[in-house]
């Protein structure tokens, strides 16, 4: 299972510096929506981390003007870009084509996307489908049970990612479960005193 570290609500300089420190130890570094909105794709492109190993995901949360936003996101040298699963069919088809044409990955964020809509959009076989517990949500989240239920409902979806308050024990259980392709961890890594050391601990339990 891959580890994706989400960096959010910090300065771009701090994000780039931390991303480069994490490069050797994690699989994917995410620049969250707040960074994309605060600094914009042009500025991020000018300061893209110099990775030797990790991939860069920019969390655009695209909902409309999909092909345009994805072209700009890949111009900023992202490897993976996100679109909302609740977006329209034409938007999803458009960003999928751009991702294919540009050699990048499409990440479909399923936050607030109902089961009927997921069934309708589950045919992008090369896309990553993100089970995403909202940052603002008050209710708890059982990531392992949710992934198992999703896999049972949508067995044709092969690339699953999961986010939402993931800690070390949960990450270990997800890895043992063997369904999710990647796990997304934010504050449990970036808000610690030593994010690199924290990332190493997560890598130890998921590999």
Automatic annotation (TrEMBL):
Q: Which Pfam families match?
A: OMPdecase
Arranged from A to Z, the UniProt key words for this protein are: Lyase
Q: Does the keyword ATP-binding apply?
A: no
The record, for InterPro entries, names: Aldolase_TIM, OMPdeCOase_dom, RibuloseP-bd_barrel
Superkingdom, taxonomy of origin: Bacteria
**Gene3D superfamilies per the record?**
Aldolase class I
Show where the Orotidine 5'-phosphate decarboxylase domain sits. 2-202
Single GO MF annotation: orotidine-5'-phosphate decarboxylase activity
**GO BP, one annotated term:** L-ascorbic acid catabolic process
Q: Which protein is depicted? A: Orotidine 5-phosphate decarboxylase HUMPS family protein
Q: What organism does the UniProt record list as the source? A: Lentilactobacillus parafarraginis DSM 18390 = JCM 14109
Classification lineage = Bacteria, Bacillati, Bacillota, Bacilli, Lactobacillales
